[in-house]
Amino acid sequence: MDYEKIEKAARNRKRALNTVIYILLAVWALVVLFPFYWMILTSLKSYAAYNSEWVPQLITFSPTLQNYVDAFTAVPLGGYFVNTLIFTLATTAIMLVVTVLAAFAFSRLEFKGKNLVFTLFLSLMMIPSELVVITNYVTITDLDMRNTFLGLILPSVASVFYIYLLKENFSQIPDELYYAAKVDGTSDLRYLLKVMLPICKPTVITVTVLKVIECWNSYVWPRLVTDDQAYFLVSNGIQEIRENGFGRENIPAMMAAVVVISVPLIVLFLIFRKKIMAGVSRGGMKG
Amino acid sequence: MKVTLQNLTKIYPSRNKKQPKEVVAVSNFNFEIADGQLIGLLGPSGCGKSTTLNLLSGLQKPTSGKIFFGDDDVTDLPAENRGVGLVFQNYALYPHLTVKQNITFPLENLKGKDKLSKEKMAEMALEAARLVQIDELMDRKPAELSGGQQQRVAIARALVKNPRILLLDEPLSNLDARLRLQTREEIRRIQRSTGITTIFVTHDQEEAMSISDLIVVMKEGVVHQIGKPQEVYDEPANLFVAKFLGTPPINVFNAAVKEGKLFIGEEAVLNVGNIAEGEVVAAIRPEGFVVDKNGVFTCDLERVEVMGRDISVVATHKESQNEVIRAIVGSENLASVNGATVRFSLKRNKVYVFKKENGERLF
Amino acid sequence: MKNNNLKAWLYLLPAVLFLGFFLVYPLIDVLIYSFEEGYNYASQTYFGVGSYNFSYVLHDPYFLQALKNTFILVIITVPVSTALSMLISVALSSIQKLRNLFQTVYFLPYVTNTLAVGLVFMILFKQTPYSDGLVNTVLSWFGISAIDFISGPYWAKMLVLCIYTVWVVMPFKILILTGSLASVDEIYYNAAKVDGTSKWRIFRKITLPMISPTVFYLIITGFIGAFKAYSDAVALFGTDLNAAEMNTIVGYIYDMLYGTSGGYPSYASAAAIILFVIVLTITCINLLVSKKHVHY
């Protein structure tokens, strides 16, 4: 056997394979990043410059921030933004309280029929939102809550999945801690707040961040219950801008709005990168 | 297949900047293994024995030095082309394949003119399975087997392709005590019947001594001694080897050499002839003590443990480096060992003297 | 004990109320709606009970169009995205350098607003009187004449929808697959390597069977997700999807409920139940198949 030949062939094969792998990964990175580049680039081109480009230019030499000014003045982007912020914060906060309390009951407290109730809860996970949105729409309309924050928030609050996720984490805390706290005369609520929540902080953060992403991007429900621009969230806002926007098809300004809408979540992601990715891979699904 | 290691060295570069120390896993290992031998690499964990095995299998590349199989330099040959059989510590049986599929797996890798027919593969798999006596279990999945059976499957899988050398990583560590005894004899039998040069790694001295033709004692990447098990036990090259081999462990004392005599405490216990005078370390095997009313070595008696054939005299001595001294003597001495002290005379060939600074053997 | 029971229910109360009111009650209600014929939203009355709503929906050309679109979307995007994410995940798992960077970049689409980024895809593919758009410009280098991907021929629109859908679902799949690949013990790869196994064979015979539960999980969730496609289409083609021939089943439900053709909760309910039955059937088939092929 000619060992040198085998060794050389193996080395070459490895090098070639590595090259192919990096090219593949780079190409996909380009596919992922290009739309982001394009939206930023376009948002920096002036209206006139953009429309005079028969062949789209990959770079601009006279960037302008005018589009961002337009996005906030010509359309109520600021309003959409504030609405989404209120909606996201309120929904996430209420969701956290509801979820933590329920998860605590399932993981720590003993009561009759606990297992049955929990199984029923889990089976609710299978219900697709499309099925229940119809009645919820009718309910909210009947309650005269269209175009109100309450109407937006209430149906988005409860999440079986997050209760499940948190309950699993709570259950991992050893019983001894609970008994020790009991002996020291700690109340259940105090134990929950002072012991369980701090221990399970990573999961709580995960749930929070996932819910924030979900809220920030929600489109279907807000579209159903709001038709007054004053209550539009960013998703509906961007759709509104697209269809009735700047009085004319002002794509650079539209892209500026898109950038503004996208930035908060991307920043949030870059800060909580590890936690978000871990949280999502633990079973989070979009929508 | 003869295996030669030439100045084999493996250095792991430092992992991060905070800890700039590189780790020398194997240092300058020279060894020639004759065809058909069973070699035990022995040492405490982290001594570089597993790294040596990985270098032999080709899973890791040495930093420097060479490896020869026969006359072929295989140092840079990838694992895929080396033709070694490797049995992993926790067997690494593919959990989704049956025993038969596991054993056949290496054969299916052969390509081109080496390609085998289905029948030939089945035949070879059955043959390997028979050798390790698992031919009844061919259709089971690994999860349905006991630890010992999994071990045999792993050996069959390593043997089926007629490897040039067979490597076993801690082959017995995952088995219970009874199976361990049985399996190590099994390994010996299989190795004898196939005649494949076999190298196995273990931290268990008994395991290594009982079946190896030669044992290699390693520590922190350095080979301390290579030899036949009994020779290494009888004539340890240094203090580490002396301490590492033997159960109960060897008794170690602070001692001194004066005028050709070995002193432990005030007592001259042995004539050691013409060696350098000064402080030394003396080590005495538990079986090196003889209970003797007029003995030269006096210890404070702690207790006596009865083991049946032998008794274990547990004593203390102010110069002892171990907490207690253990002497294994015949049970006929039971009656004569009592009181506050016990006196021993020493068997000359069970007493070793080492340099205090580096543990090098003096006597 | 009684005291404890009460306390536990107190903790559960908010969750039970919210879920009962917005999840359980609607589920029952939607079934009732779907069988109430001729329901009039304004007067809250109906003529009778029967399966007319289902029959109406199943004969509605818009629904059939939506059904067709959804099926095409599912059949194309699920295999493509699964295969592509597998390829990328395997590549990603085999490198050390830049791995974290690539992983972060690949996850970005997950945290972006589907509607917003959809607009970027739209302008990339759109042909206007002023410009052919970037994609057409690139295609012209290969001698392909300009196509309006956004308001042009059906297949062009479907292509863009598929591309965008794949782009959106990839982050989740890559994340799950790389996690699963990392969980395969390296010892199996070493064992296979020592036995002279080729890379491709290692992948097919060891890696794939070992991560098969994850792959099936991704396929099942992929099917469910793709059947519920909606906002991707809105992002690309606007809210009037029927006019664009690009509606999906979910889009049809919302249009029936609200929007230009809206105000028919009964039809919407019937369509929602049909969707649910389709998804349930496909999921069951998937589970049956996976029982046969998954090894744990």
Number of helices of chain C: 12
Fraction of residues of chain C in helices? Answer: over 70%
Question: What is the gyration radius of chain A calculated from CA atoms?
Answer: 25 Å
CATH class of the largest domain in chain C: Mainly Alpha
Main β-sheet of chain C, in a few words? 2 strands, antiparallel
Concise overview:
The complex is a heterotrimer of chains A (287), B (363) and C (296). With 287 residues, chain A is mainly alpha-helical.
How would you describe the overall organization of this protein?
The complex is a heterotrimer of chains A (287), B (363) and C (296). With 287 residues, chain A is an all-alpha fold. Chain A folds into 2 domains: 3-66; 75-245, MetI-like fold. Chain A has 15 helices and no strands. The longest helix of chain A is centred in the N-terminal third of the chain and has 42 residues, at 3-44. With 363 residues, chain B is an alpha+beta fold. Chain B has 2 domains: 3-243, Rossmann fold, CATH 3.40.50.300; 248-355, no CATH class. The longest helix of chain B is centred in the middle third of the chain and has 18 residues, at 177-194. Chain B starts with a strand and ends in an 8-residue tail after the last strand. The relative contact order of chain B is 0.12. Chain C has 296 residues and is mainly α. Chain C is 73% helix and 1% strand. Chain C contains 12 helices and 2 strands, in the order αββααααααααααα. Chain C has helices at 2-35, 52-59, 61-93, 99-107, 114-125, 133-141, 154-182, 186-194, 199-227, 231-237, 249-257, 265-293, and strands at residues 36-37, 48-49. A two-stranded antiparallel sheet of chain C has the order 1-2. Classes of the chains: A mainly alpha (287), B alpha+beta (363), C mainly alpha (296). At the A-C interface, helix 1, helix 4, helix 5, helix 6 and helix 11 of A face helix 1, helix 3, helix 4, helix 5 and helix 6 of C.
